[in-house]
Structure formats: C-alpha cells, structure tokens
Sequence to fold (108 residues):
Amino acid sequence: MKMRTELQADSKRSRHSVATIYTVWLLWLFGFTESKIGQALNLRKGQVSGIINQSDYRNRADMTHDQRQKEFDDLLSKRFDQNGYPIDGGLFRTLPEKILPLNGRGRR
Fold:
C-alpha cells in the first residue's frame, strides 16, 4: 500500500503529474477551496475534487487545526525530490508556514 506522501504518479491510474497532485494536497491543507485551487492550477473543480477524494486529506474538516498544521508541515517538508529540485516548481518558496482557519463547513 502506498503512503499518501510517496507522491508517485501511477500513469495507469493518475491523469495528473506528481507536481499537480502535491500542489493540490498542499493548497487543500493550507485552507483553499476546491474552486480556488482549480483557478490557481487551471483545473476544473471536479478534477481538484477527484485528487482530494483519493487522498488521506479528504476529510480536513474532521481534523483539528493543529492536526492539519502538522500534516501541512509534514507535506511541505517533502517538497524536494531526490535530486534536490522542488516538486512544486518553486511555487511554495514563499508560502506562509501557518495554515488558514476553516469556516464551519471545512470548505473555507
């Protein structure tokens, strides 16, 4: 069974690159909505939703703020590949380290 942080895109199962999946997960944990993530990455909301629903992060509303911060920090620490290049293409070099608070529905 693959761990959620292994970030290995299986070409038979995933239509999205490792960078896209990683970016969606990180922005989701950060507190962006599916719509905002789609706008930022030029994806349809359904594509973003599919990536999120196949991850262990899909129920972020059930996480406490501290749990979500821990998951975010863990994922952010894995942003470089084995060659030292950022998986996100450098997108998150200026991302704040503190996640956004969610509204009552967890969708923000």
About this structure: The helical segments are 18-30, 34-41, 45-53, 65-76. Confidence is low (pLDDT under 50) at residues 1-5. DSSP finds four helices and no strands in the chain. The two ends are 31 Å apart (CA to CA).
